[in-house]
Amino acid sequence: MAQTEITPVMQPPKVGKVGDPCAMVIFGAAGDLTRRKLIPALYNLAKSQVLSREFAIVGVARSQMSTEDFRNKLSKDIKEFATEAVDPDLWEWFVKRIYYLAGDFDDKNLYPKLKELLDKVDRDHTTHGNHFYYLATAADFFAPIVEQLAAIGLMEENDRWRRVIVEKPFGHDLESAKALNQKLLSVAQENQIYRIDHYLGKETVQNILALRFANGIFEPVWNRRYIDHVQISVAETVGVEQRGSYYDQAGALRDMVPNHIMQLITLTAMEPPVSFRANAVRDEQAKTLHAIQPLSDEDVLSKTVRGQYGEGIVNGERVPAYRSEPDVPSDSKTETFVAMKLQIDNWRWADVPFYLRTGKALAAHNTHIVIQFRRAPFVMFRDTPVETLMPNQLILHIAPEEGISLRFAAKVPGPAMRLGAVDMNFEYADYFGTQPNTGYERLLHDCMIGDATLFQRADMVEAGWCVVSPLLDVWKALPPRSFPNYAAGSWGPKEADELLERDGRHWRNFEK
Ligand code: BG6
Q1: Chain mean pLDDT for the chain
Q2: Percentage of the residues of the chain whose pLDDT score is greater than 90
Q3: 1: Cβ–Cβ under 8 A, 6 or more apart, which residues?
Q4: Ligand 1 pocket check for 236: Cβ under 6 Å
Q5: How would you class 25 by CB atoms within 10 Å of its CB: exposed for 0-12, middle for 13-18, buried for 19 or more?
Q6: For 407-423, how does the pLDDT look when each residue is reduced to its tens digit (9 = 90+)?
Q7: pLDDT tens for each residue of 76-116
Q8: Which atom of ligand 1 is nearest to the CA of 238?
Q9: Fewest CB within 10 A of the end CB: N or C in the chain?
Q10: What's this model's pTM, rounded to 2 decimal places?
Q11: Architecture per CATH, 200-374+458-501
């Protein structure tokens, strides 16, 4: 039942705090992220009046362009990627504070030029010398860029702040993540480094915290006594699109698990933090990650599944096999699907399995978390067919549906005591409408006000890699023999279903 009235306590926050005056430097500004997400998100912040009037952007990239060219290009792009019709007056104000500098990130001469430009921008837009540097570049450049910025004094804080946002992939395994952390931390403080994970920009992901900690009814049952198991599915219908060369090096495991899926696990499983301060929340997330039981080599063989899609039909369209995608070798051994069973070794979750899966070219685009509760004792319903005695499930729908539903049993009307599974649904759109959003607004704004709660700390990134390290090692030693092993448009390899069936459980699949 959709209800349109909301009580005051549930109203979305009014316009938040205005971001500090600052200049944002985007390294890799000619790329897709800038035009598709960053600029539309900044524009939305301006529209919501939470972007300081004293704000400027400096784009840095290899493409030869003038500031004028860059402004013209973004003025065209915004028409395509804005989340709603562009207000010409606001855009005119916005675009005037955009600058461009062409250069190679590994060219030392670039940085004095950048400093000179930033001095001018700081003066012209009274940004108080506050800067944040967004690294939307290939991962190889992350450390060199920050080292160069530090060498020339652009990371020095004093009475202004200097921050750096680092995109994924943060390393390609535990060793490289540690090495990157070490390099960054040798020239900057931890509180200057904002490791971004765009999953934490999603309202529905942030809502996991609200659901758990702003309501009294869930906490008493949120533990091993009442919860049978947890399923986290991040199913995509897209293949690798134009990213074959990146993806073939990364694979589904690295691309999705140590980062996005670990966020979903920690928010679902963490203990209540003592406050919503950045380190209070991140301490609890880190503890949860550390409590994930490391998989032994045998566990990797028995509790994890990898897959690669073959040709098939997704949403009515024929999709080529992964090995036929552009920039993918025809004998690629890279996984496009992964499923696993993990245990969290603490008092709350001992013996409660967490089943995870993610994959490309699957039957439906759907990200959700299923909390399955233990069954009621069956005594009274001994004669009821077992499939109608579906256990209670609380489902957190993250994408594309945004909401929460609760499945429970109800009596089917009629003379006999028959049971049917029914759903109680909450949909965001029914209560709060839909706010056009790229998913980056909150994260960029948080960086401008110095709130690192939704960003990864060094220890969390490393703990995420620790979880997947055994899989990387065993899978490397034992290349897959049966790839491709699932058809595009299916729900992944049959072994992923068997992983749950062996435990008497089933994945909950949502068709849309
Ligand atoms: C990215 C991955 O980080 O997340 C992509 O590199 C993936 O492969 C994407 O498709 C998924 O994000 P979302 O927000 O569409 O679920």
Answers
A1: 93
A2: 88
A3: none
A4: yes
A5: buried
A6: 998 888 998 878 888 99
A7: 999 999 999 999 999 999 999 999 999 999 999 999 999 99
A8: 10
A9: N
A10: 0.93
A11: 2-Layer Sandwich (3.30)
